[in-house]
Specification:
4 strands, two-stranded parallel ribbon, extended, two-stranded antiparallel sheet, 10 helices, disordered C terminus, mainly alpha, 218 residues
């Protein structure tokens, strides 16, 4: 599988790679940007694309396992918290709720899910290494509500912290502001937009930046 950041030439190279027998996935630039770890370069872009592809594939496999077993009357908790129970049922031939033939087929998906999980865990270790090696990231993680992943995402996005005079200016620049539906002189503010980085746009992270950052960020 080859992940390509969507750009004017992405479709052409996608067709070329498909002709060679590869499976191609085009990733929207906004999704790739959310996973970019530090300053933009080819190596970091490749890591961001890889993580975006892996996370998407793991979600698809989890949904497939949940859907197939639901047809047999086996329902799990929503999200990834319910997936381990499904994997246990598939691996346990003596469970009795699923026939051995079905377990053998679903085991293919289960093994793919485990393999992708291991790859994502490896990438997470790299993120932690970047976090521990970056002073700015470590300082950000001291703010309540911000962890290593959110801290590294902010460091990658912001660059020069001295550009901003306050935490509020920083929050506004990276999009941690309510979505507006204003018309006719009436201001209507909604929730934070869902575009871009999940960690960056979370209300908890926004509140942390607004209330815990010093007036002068350096």
């Amino acid at each position: 599988m080859v992940g390509i950041e969507a750009c004017p030439s992405a479709h052409h190279w996608g067709r070329e790679l498909q002709a060679l027998g590869h499976t191609v996935r085009l990733i929207p630039p906004s999704y790739v940007k959310a996973d970019l770890k530090r300053s933009k370069n080819d190596a970091n872009d490749a890591a961001a694309i890889c993580e975006a592809v892996l996370v998407r594939q793991r979600t698809m496999l989890s949904n497939a396992l949940r859907g197939h077993l639901a047809e047999l009357g086996i329902v799990s908790a929503k999200g990834r918290n319910g997936t381990p129970e499904l994997l246990r049922i598939i691996a346990d031939a003596e469970d009795g709720r699923v026939s051995p033939a079905v377990c053998g087929i679903l085991d293919v998906l289960a093994r793919q899910y485990d393999a992708i999980g291991a790859e994502i865990a490896s990438i997470d270790k790299n993120i932690m290494s970047l976090h521990q090696a970056c002073e700015a990231s470590r300082r950000l993680a001291e703010i309540p509500g911000i962890g290593p992943i959110g801290a590294t995402a902010l460091v990658a996005e912001i660059g020069d912290w001295n550009t901003f005079s306050s935490g509020r200016s920083l929050a506004a620049w990276i999009g941690l502001v309510p979505k507006q539906h204003s018309t006719g002189g009436k201001d209507k503010l909604g929730s934070i937009t869902k575009q871009g980085n999940l960690y960056r746009r979370s209300s908890r992270l926004c509140a942390s930046l607004r209330h815990h950052c010093k007036p002068k960020i350096s």
